[in-house]
Amino acid sequence: MRVTDSLKYEIFTRNLSKIKELVDNTQNKIASGKKILTPSDDPVAKSSGIALEAEKAINIQYKRNLEKLKTLGGYYDTAITSLHELLTKAKEIAVTQSSDNMDATTRKSSAEQIKGIIEQLVTIGNTKLGNTYIFGGEKTDAVPFTLKDDYSVTYNGTEEVPSVYIDKLTKEDLGISGKRVFISDTDIFSVLKDLKDALETNNKDGIRSSLDGLEAALQKTQTNLSYVGTYASRIDDYIAYKETRDIDIDETLSKMLDVDIAQAVTEFNMLTNAYQAMLYSMAKIQELNVLNYLK
Q: What is the mean pLDDT of the chain?
């Protein structure tokens, strides 16, 4: 097959066009900072990148949930620590007033202190975070504890608590039920009301009997403090994991999608030089063709 001048020229211009396309593409990569500009550049990498970006977007919600759980953990720790301190104070009062040296006057005065402790515990039980009652269980918008005139207390919440996703397949309780903290196993309010009644009626045996209930309430509260500590530690671990995972995703995406600027600039300069050289050669070819025509 005879290669004519026109065929040579067509091949030359086609190669020139390809180099120009490479120059433009490399320039666009430098400008965007990305080495994959369209899915066709690397379909597999582009698909993997989309999946990682989606995971990162979902992690934003997971981290919001975790931060809320962490805040709640702080509230529970403060509330239950205060509960433990008030129960300790109530026990000290009971121990003192169970002595034979105390009389009806001192006991009646101490009954007022116990009433104050009950009132403080109701306030703690009705703690709010924003518009959420943290001890209401699933009834987060209703006051959990109601103090009656006789200083008995009713719980209006639920034993169950809502939950939220903190990972694709993992849920965590969104709080701790007030029933667990104040009512279950040992009803703290009932124990304190019985102590108050015994103090008001100068019932020494009743005061002494309350000590067992107070000790059980303290042990229960200590168990709940340990639970909150474990809960908070677990949340912190998940937060740290999510932060590390986001860093890993960013690094993977960068390696997969981000262009090496230094390498791209070098490639751009080489392609530009080649393109200019071909333009120069084309100009020379066109000059020769004109001279041949004149001859």
A: 84
| Token digits of residue 263 | 């390498």
Is 210:191 a contact under the CB 8 Å cutoff? Answer: yes
Three-state DSSP at 36 gives coil
Asked, for residue 175, whether it belongs to a domain, the answer is yes
Structural domain boundaries enclosing 20: 5-35+264-294
Q: Which residues fall within 8 angstroms of residue 1, CB to CB, at 6 or more apart?
A: none
Cα–Cα distance measured from residue 69 to residue 235, given in angstroms and rounded to the nearest whole number? 7
Tell me if 50 is assigned to some domain: no
Give this prediction's pTM. Answer: 0.73
**Can you give the CATH number for the domain in which 178 is found?**
1.20.1330.10
pLDDT in tens, 137-153: 999 999 999 999 999 99
Task: Show the CA angle centred on residue 249, arms to residues 248 and 255, nearest 5°.
Answer: 90
- Whether 156 and 213 have beta carbons less than 8 Å apart is answered as no
Instruction: Give yes or no for a contact between 87 and 218, defined as CB atoms under 8 angstroms apart.
Output: yes
